[in-house]
Amino acid sequence: MRIKVVFHYLGILIGILGLSMLFPLACSIYYQESDLLVFVISIAITLVSGLLLWKLFPVSEERLSQREAIMLVSGGWILASAFGTLPYVLAGIFPSYLDAYFEAISGFTTTGATVLTDIDSLRISHHGILIWRSLTQWIGGMGIITLFVALFPVLGIGASFLVDAEMPGPQAERITARIRDTAKALWLVYFGFSGLEVITLWIAGMPLFDAFSVTLSTMPTGGFTPTTLSVGAYNSVLIEGIIIFFMVLAGVNFALYYFLFWKHQPKRILSNPEFQFYILILTGSTIFMALNLINDMGLPVSEAFRYSSFQSVSIMTTTGFVTVNFDVWPAFSKVIMLCLMAIGASAGSTGGAIKITRIMVLLKYAYRRIILFFNPRVVLPIKIGKNIVPEGIISEIVGMSILYFGILVFGFILMSTVGLDQVSALSSVAATLGNVGPGLGLVGPAANYLFIPALGKIILIVCMLVGRLELFTVLVLLTPSFWKWR
C-alpha cells in the first residue's frame, strides 16, 4: 500500500474543505460579525495544510488500489472533521476541543447530535458559525469523497473504489458508464433539490437565513437547525409540510432521480420495490403512532397526524428534526421510533441506519430459511422485484446486519458504564450509529449530548463515523491483514 498516494489526495481533499469555508465567511461579512476573522484564519490553516500534504507527497497519476481507497475515505472523514472544528475552536463556541470535534463529526456524518445548549443565542453574532454547522451536513450528505470524485477527473483512477467505500447502501448503483459522471449527476440532483427547498421555505414565510440553514440540513438528512427548538420553533403546518416533502425525497435512492430527470422514466420510481416498501413503512408508522397519540394522549386527530407524520419521516430518514418532545409520548410510539432509527431510508439516499433494501433481503432470507427447514432441496433465489440478489450480496448484508446489531449492543453496554440509564444508553448508540441525532431519555429531542462524559462522547463519535461509512470501511482498518505492506 502506497501511503504517499493517500496523503497526496488527502491534501486535495482538505484544500476543497478550506474553499468550502468561503460560504460562511461571506455570511459573516454580510452580517458584519467578528467571525469573519475566524473563517479567514480557518481557511488559511486548512488550505496551507492541504497544500503541504499535496506538495510533500507528490505522486504520478497511478490507479488507486482498493486498500488505498479505503484509507483515503476513512482518513478523509476523520481529517475533514478535525479541520471542520477550527471555526468552532477559534470562535470559542465550545468549552473543549472534544466537544467541537463531536459537533463537527456529527455534522459531516449528518447525525445531528449536538452539544450546543442555546443555539438561539448564536444568532446574535455567529451567523457564519451556524451556516458552517449546517454546511458540514450538506457536504457530508452526498459524500465528501463523492464530491471529490465529481470535481477531479484525475480520480477516475480508482474512483469506483472510493465511491463504493463511501456511498450508503449495499452497493452504489452506477447510473452512467463513468463513475465520475455518476457522481456529477447525483450532486446535480442534490443541488437542484436544495435550491428548490430554499425557495419554497422562503415563500412559506421562513426567514431567508433560516431557509438556507434548514435546507442545508434537510437534503443530507442531517438535523441541525439555527434554532434551539428545531423545526418546532416555526410552528407552521406549511413549513412542516414542505420539510416533510423534501425529507421524503432525500430518503429515496438518488439513482432513481437520474431515471426520472434524464431518462424521463417516472415508472422506474413508482415500480421500484424499495421505494414502495419505504412509503409503506412511513405510512404505516404514521398511522399507528397517530392512533396511539389519539387513544393514549387524547390528541385531536389533525394534531396527532401532524406530529406523527413529521416525526416518523424525520426519524426514518434519519434527519432528526423535531416539532414536539416525542420522549413524553406513549411507550408504543417510542418503540416505533426506535425501530425506525434502525431501519433507516433507502440505499443510495442520504439517510443512515441499515437501509430498506437490506431489511427486505433479510426478511426474504429469513423466509427462505423457514422453507429450507422442511424442504432442504428446494432452490429458492431471493428477488427484489424481478432481480435476483446474488448470494455474495446476501452474505454481505447478513454479515453487515450482524455487525450492526453487535456494535449496537456493545455500544449500549459501554454507554451504560459511563453513567447513562438503559433507555438513554441504548437510544444514544442507536441515534448515533444510525446517524439520526435525537434519541430518548437524557438524549431526547428536548435535551442534548453535552452532559455525556468524555469517554461516552468518544464512543459516540466512533459510532457516528462507523455508521456513516457503513461499518466495513472503518472496521477493515482494525484487521492486521489490511496493514500488510506489499
What this model shows, in words?
This protein is an all-alpha fold and 486 residues long. It has 22 helices and two strands. It has a two-stranded antiparallel sheet with strand order 1-2. Strand 1 (383-384) and strand 2 form a beta hairpin. Helix 1 runs antiparallel to helix 3 and helix 20 (422-433) packs parallel to helix 21 (454-468). It starts with a helix and ends in an 11-residue tail after the last helix. The mean pLDDT is 89.
Helix residue percentage: 55-70%
How confident is the prediction overall: mean pLDDT? 89
Number of strands: 2
Poorly predicted spans = none
What would you call the structural class?
mainly alpha
Strand content: under 5%
Q: Can you summarize the main beta sheet?
A: 2 strands, antiparallel
- Gyration radius, rounded: 22 Å
User: What series of H and E elements makes up the topology?
Assistant: HHHHHHHHHHHHHHHHHHEEHHHH
Question: How many DSSP helices?
Answer: 22
Report the end-to-end length measured between terminal Cα atoms: 6 Å
Strand order of the largest sheet: 1-2
Global outline? globular
Summarize the structure.
By secondary structure, the protein is an all-alpha fold. It contains 22 helices and two strands.
Keywords:
single chain, about 475 residues, mainly alpha, two-stranded antiparallel ribbon, 22 helices, about 65% helix
